[in-house]
Amino acid sequence: MALFFAMLKTGRLILRAAVQTDLMDLYAIFSDPRAMRYWSTPPHPNPERTQQNLDRLIASAKDRLTYFVIEMDGRAIGTAGMHKDDEIGFLLHPDYWRQGIVTEAMNAIIPHLFETTDVARLTADADPHNAASVGILKSLGFTETGRAEKTFCIDGEWSDSVYFAKSRP
């Protein structure tokens, strides 16, 4: 098994593989109800729950890095990339919202994904009420491909989905 490592840098960010020392920074994100409002799971109740995610992030980077930790000023402030099949996603600590960070990260990650994978297109699933994520996806060149009702039930509350795709250039 060949190991594949990648680190991407932008003007403000380091996009890298997850490491164990990211646990508490990631827990600060995954436990925040604001950050998790439109996520597919409820906020994490404890660091042990976040450790499960971190273990998967670390393991998934062993062959090829497609899902990155977003690091800024020495802190893990979010995650972004392709997390399954051809689907991308991103999550950012609310203290860093509305600063163009996800757009900056994804503008580096998307070309990397097309260069290092054979996916024909990238897809995304967002809650249609999440105007920020929908706007980011559109600004990145994703186009809407469909909608569905009641796709996620988190703590008894149903969410809908709007689906997006971006073809390989």
At a glance:
The protein has about 170 residues and is α+β, with helices and mostly antiparallel strands. The protein is about 30% helix and about 35% strand. The chain is globular.
Description:
- The chain has 169 residues and is α+β, with helices and mostly antiparallel strands.
- It is built from five helices and eight strands, in the order ββαααβββαβαββ.
- The chain has helices spanning 23-30, 33-36, 47-60, 101-116, 131-139; strands at residues 8-9, 14-16, 67-72, 75-84, 87-92, 121-126, 143-154, 157-167.
- The strands form two sheets. A five-stranded antiparallel β-sheet has the order 1-2-3-4-5, sandwiched between helices. Strands 6-8-7 form a three-stranded antiparallel β-sheet, with helices on one face.
- Strand 3 (67-72) and strand 4 form a beta hairpin.
- Helix 1 (23-30) crosses helix 3 (47-60).
- The chain is globular.
- The mean pLDDT is 94.
